[in-house]
Amino acid sequence: MVDVSPGESVRILRELQGLSQNELARLTGIPQSTISAIENDRVRLGVERAKVLARALRCHPAVLVFPGWDVKVESAA
Q1: Is residue 19 part of a domain?
Q2: How many domains are contained in the chain?
Q3: CA distance 32 to 4
Q4: Which one of 15, 20, 30, 62 is separated from 72 by 20 to 30 angstroms, measured CA to CA?
């Protein structure tokens, strides 16, 4: 298993969908400079930004916030 940071998960999903940072910024209203900072782990993603980005990237926010979480290994109980 490869550890992926929340910022890296944003970048991977953005690239898989063929979006530039500028296009994602336009879709979300989040400045491109902030998206760059998130992708490079200079700014924390945060739940509210994760929700906005998840809508644009068509995924669940948890995919962005907890990219390396494995249900089988890490029980919530």
Answers
A1: yes
A2: 1
A3: 21
A4: 15
Residue 75 lies in a domain: no
Whether residue 73 lies inside any domain: the answer is no
Q: What's the rounded mean pLDDT across residues 7-20?
A: 96
Q: What is the DSSP letter of 43?
A: S
| Ordered alpha helix ranges (H), 1-77 | 6-16, 21-28, 32-39, 47-57, 61-65
Neighbours of 28 (CB within 10 A): 17
Instruction: Give the Cα separation of 62 and 10 in Å (integer).
Output: 11
Full-model pTM: 0.85
